[in-house]
Specification:
With 286 residues, this protein is an alpha/beta fold. It contains nine helices and nine strands. The strands form two sheets. The protein has a seven-stranded mixed sheet with strand order 3-4-5-6-7-8-9, with helices on both faces. Helix 4 packs parallel to helix 5. The chain is globular. It binds zinc ion. Zinc ion binds next to loops.
Length: 286
C-alpha cells in the first residue's frame, strides 16, 4: 500500500539558478562538498570545510550583523521609475516589476538604523539578486539619505557592497549617483563620523569607483572579487594573462587596497572593535 500518491506532473526537474541555496542540500562553490542547509546557516552561509563564502542578501547580513530587533528600515518603498523608457531584452519597467515580484525587494540596496554590540549605527546592504546589484537612482538616493542620517545623528555608517556596477538602463542618471554619493560621504568625513565598507563578492564597476572605495576602513570577505572592470574585459583589452588571484581580496590586501580580510563569523566583533577604536581616537582629538 502506498502511503502517499504523487502524480508525475508535479515533479519539477528544472532547478532555478540562484546564489542562495534553496533546497535542503547545496554544493559548495569552493570545494564541491555537499552541505546540508542547517550547518550552512549556522556557519553564516560559509562552507564548514573550506570556508567558501556563499553570496547572501541583506536579510541574512542584517540578521547576523545587528543586535536582535534593532533594525529599522528607511526608505523601504522607494522604487525606480523608467525615465528613459529603456528596452533591452524586455522593457526596463517590466524588468523592475518582475524582479520586485521575484525577490520581494524594491531595489538593490536596503538601508536603515540598528545597533552592533550596543553601538548605534546606520547600515546599508546591497542585494546582488536584484538586477545584479546594479546601482541606479534608487541605490544612489538611498545611500545618500543614509549618509545624511549618519551625519546628522552622529552614528557610524556601514555599507556592505556587492554589485555588477552601474545600472545601464538608467544611463547617465545612474552614473551621476556616483558623484552624488561621493559628495555626501565627503560631508560625513568632514563631520568626523566613521565610515566602514564591507566588500563582498563581487564588488565591481561604478560601486567600486565610488562609495565602496571611500571608507575610512575597508574590510573584505575572503576571496571576494573586487575591481572596476572585470578580469575578462581587462584580458581582452590588454591582450595579456592576468596574475594569479588578480582582483581577489587577498591580492588587494597585499597591494594595500583593502585593510583587512575578515571571515563572516568574525565580522560583527571586528566592526564593533573598529568603531570603538575610531570613536576613541576622535574623542582624544576633540
Ligand atoms: Zn567548501
Amino acid at each position: 500500500m502506498a502511503w502517499f500518491k504523487r502524480s508525475k506532473e508535479n515533479i519539477s526537474t528544472s532547478v532555478p539558478k540562484k546564489d542562495m541555496p534553496d533546497g535542503m542540500w547545496t554544493k559548495c562553490g569552493g570545494c564541491g562538498e555537499i552541505i546540508h542547509k542547517k550547518p550552512l546557516e549556522q556557519n553564516l552561509f560559509t562552507c564548514p570545510k573550506c570556508q567558501y563564502h556563499f553570496r547572501i542578501g541583506s536579510k541574512e547580513y542584517f540578521g547576523f550583523l545587528l543586535d536582535k530587533g534593532t533594525f529599522k528600515e528607511m526608505d523601504k518603498k522607494m522604487r525606480s521609475v523608467d525615465p528613459l523608457k529603456f528596452v533591452d531584452t524586455k522593457p526596463y519597467g517590466k524588468r523592475i516589476e518582475d524582479t520586485i515580484r521575484k525577490t520581494g525587494l524594491n531595489d538593490a540596496v536596503r538601508t536603515g538604523e540598528g545597533a552592533i554590540e550596543g553601538i548605534p549605527v546606520v547600515v546599508a546592504c546591497m542585494d546582488f539578486g536584484f538586477i545584479g546589484g546594479s546601482m541606479g537612482s534608487v541605490v544612489g538616493e538611498k545611500i545618500s539619505r543614509a549618509t545624511d542620517v549618519a551625519r546628522k545623528k552622529r552614528k557610524p555608517l556601514i555599507v556592505i557592497s556587492s554589485s555588477g556596477g552601474a545600472r545601464m538602463m538608467e544611463g547617465a542618471l545612474s552614473l551621476m549617483q556616483m558623484a552624488k554619493m561621493s559628495a555626501r560621504l565627503a560631508q560625513l568625513s568632514d563631520a568626523g563620523i566613521p565610515y566602514i565598507v564591507i566588500l563582498t563578492d563581487p564588488t565591481t564597476g561604478g560601486v567600486t569607483a565610488s562609495f565602496a572605495m571611500l571608507g575610512d576602513v575597508h574590510i573584505a570577505e575572503p576571496s571576494a572579487l573586487i575591481g572596476f572592470a572585470g578580469p575578462r574585459v581587462i584580458r581582452q583589452t590588454i591582450g595579456k594573462d592576468l596574475p594569479e588571484g588578480f582582483q581577489r581580496s587577498e591580492f588587494l590586501l597585499e597591494k594595500g587596497f583593502v585593510d583587512m580580510i575578515v571571515h563572516r563569523k568574525d565580522m560583527r566583533d571586528t566592526l564593533a572593535k573598529t568603531i570603538r577604536h575610531i570613536w576613541d581616537g576622535e574623542k582624544q582629538k576633540s
